[in-house]
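Protein modeling request. Please complete all fields; requests missing the sequence field cannot be processed.
Requester role: graduate student
Desired output: 3D structure, token encoding
Chains: 1
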Amino acid sequence: MLVSETVELLAPRPDGLYVDCTVGLGGHTAALLDAGAGRVIGVDRDPTALESTRARLASAGDRLALVHADYRDLPRVLTDRAVSAVDGALADLGVSSMQLDDAERGFSFRHDGPLDMRMDPSSGATLAERLVDVDEATLADVIARFGEERHARRVARAIVRARDERPLTRTGELASVVRRAAGGRGWQRLDPATRTFQALRIWVNRELEGLDTFIEAAVAALAVGGRLAVIAFHSLEDRVVKHTMRQLGHMKTVTVLTKKPIWPSEDEARRNPRARSARLRAVERLA
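Delivered output (287 residues):
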């Protein structure tokens, strides 16, 4: 999403080193390489995505290095490779289409599957495991903060009540509970389970935790004139990205290149409805 706009902002050079902090299926990385980037380090916490990208971009050879790590581990990733500075970095936040479309990953209520939701299936507790003993107040706070669900207390109460009767282990079960608690009558633009599923996914993967620190670290890793581009998909992420970039701008660490976020073109939004909420912001490192 926003691939051409991101590449244009990063302006890759044949002698440059770039890091894609959320490589996913490699769309942005492939575009950087095609646009002439000398080398790219691709980082992702999803090993399945890395395997797919490794196969897809095998022809890149030693121009591409793929690393299994959380984007917030960027300083360690670069230190382990003796990299002192990069010429550009990008992060495409949130869940990928591949993850949403795979029922076994448990991200979507549109396909029944196990309640997992981990972006890195090799690490941490699944959503089903987290729901076993979470208290109602904590759950309501998660749903209200990360999902901006106005019926958060009612939804949390319903989830805890259902969990106490029998363990919740499937996305279909959870979606039914949430819909009954949050749903209104008649047609609705959003499925009543949407906000709660978003909140629980953010909670499981700690998506907002350390996002500001990541942006600061990514900027610190840039060479003078290097650029960082970040794509956010909901207002909670974008708020952190905008605020952190502005703070760095006030400190004269960066120049903010996007006074307002860049949105997908009408054509891209039409071709890919999931791109509609994407927004791109970028900064350039000052001396």
